[in-house]
Amino acid sequence: ETERAGALAAKLGLELQTEEQALAQLTQAELLVSRSAAELGNCQSALRQWRMASDRRAQYDQAQVSLLAAEARLTQAQAAVAGLRLQAEQEQLRLSELQEKWEQAQAALLAGELAEGTPCPVCGSTAHPAKAAPVDGSPDQAGLREPRQRLADSRQLQEQARQLEYDAQIERDGLLTAVKLLADELAGLQDWEPAA
Fold first, then answer.
1. Residue 152 contacts residue 30 (beta carbons within 8 Å)
2. How many CA within 13 A on the CB side of residue 69?
3. What's the gap between Cα 47 and its chain centre?
4. Distance of alpha carbon 179 from its chain centroid, rounded?
5. What predicted TM-score, i.e. pTM, was given to this entire model?
6. How far apart are alpha carbons 7 and 139 in whole angstroms?
7. CB 184 within 8 A of CB 63
8. What is the pLDDT of residues 109-125, one digit of tens each?
9. Cβ pair 154, 87 in contact under 8 A
């Protein structure tokens, strides 16, 4: 019976040793799984960050393209405003010249009716030493209507161009802000440098 007990004890000892080895292997496997899970979590986090940086970079690039287009529209609007301002100034000069000729013609008309000793209907003087002379090419009231309309049209176009310029400037300023915010956000993300 001692032999049997000894054999049983040896068998149990081997089983215990086998179980301890299996437990040690299981503990090692559990540690390996835990490390792998941590590495997987790190990889997933890095992937999320990379995707976020990639999305923000695409937004940044699109905002840069939109900004260039807005700056081009602003430049065009500024050129239009300058051109229309010059056009309005020229129309105003033409109208002023025609208006002056018309006024001189009106003065000459009144002067034609003046006689020495009769009072002037404008100033009341009875002496008329320097009467206004007729002016060649002086327009009538109808001849002033078209230049006045051209001036009004030119000013209206100039105002419309100013509004377009203002809108383009607001758009450009908004895009400048968006580009700066995206660049700041991207600079804060790991492994990203803004393009020069």
1. no
2. 6
3. 33
4. 10
5. 0.64
6. 138
7. no
8. 888 888 888 898 888 88
9. yes
